[in-house]
């Protein structure tokens, strides 16, 4: 696979610059990572693929930047927080020219385009959604 993404954004370096620790440990069931605002720590599941790890760290950093605290009892607010975190992480991880190239290489397969970009499908979907609201891939 020929990667179409320049890896200028490094979520681990970003975390370090914010004084946020990243610890590999088992987060709660059903999650790959978790932002703990009390300890300013991101927990990541052991054994993640490189693209999963960078995406979940970027996503959890977005929670930190947004000042999010997790409240499992509020589904609507939780869904909005998750979408906002995905959109911010996608903006850090992806550039329009790289997305255009990946979509040209794999026009009928979101999973293949995401793999080409070294991001998860969820992050690519969030990026595409945000840019469709703004008027397209160049916005």
Please give a structural write-up.
- Helix 2 (50-66) crosses helix 3 and helix 4 packs across helix 5 (110-117).
- The chain contains six helices and three strands.
- It starts with 10 loop residues before the first helix and ends in a 5-residue tail after the last helix.
- The protein has helices at residues 11-17, 50-66, 75-93, 96-105, 110-117, 121-134, and strands spanning 21-24, 33-36, 41-44.
- The longest helix has 19 residues, at 75-93.
- With 139 residues, it is mostly helical.
- The model is unreliable at 1-5 (pLDDT under 50).
- A hairpin with a 4-residue loop joins strand 2 (33-36) and strand 3 (41-44).
- It is 54% helix and 9% strand.
- A three-stranded mixed beta sheet has the order 1-3-2.
- The protein is globular.
What shape does the CA trace take?
Answer: globular
Approximately how much helix is present in the residues? 40-55%
Following the backbone from N to C, one meets helices and strands in this order, namely: HEEEHHHHH
Weakly predicted, low-confidence segments: 1-5
Overall number of strands? 3
Q: Tell me the number of helical segments per DSSP (H or I, 4 or more residues long).
A: 6
Rg on CA atoms, Å: 15 Å
Strand content: 5-15%
Distance between the termini: 27 Å
Strand count, sense and closure of the main sheet?
A: 3 strands, mixed
| Average pLDDT number | 89
Please identify the structural class as seen in this structure.
mainly alpha
Strand order of the largest sheet: 1-3-2
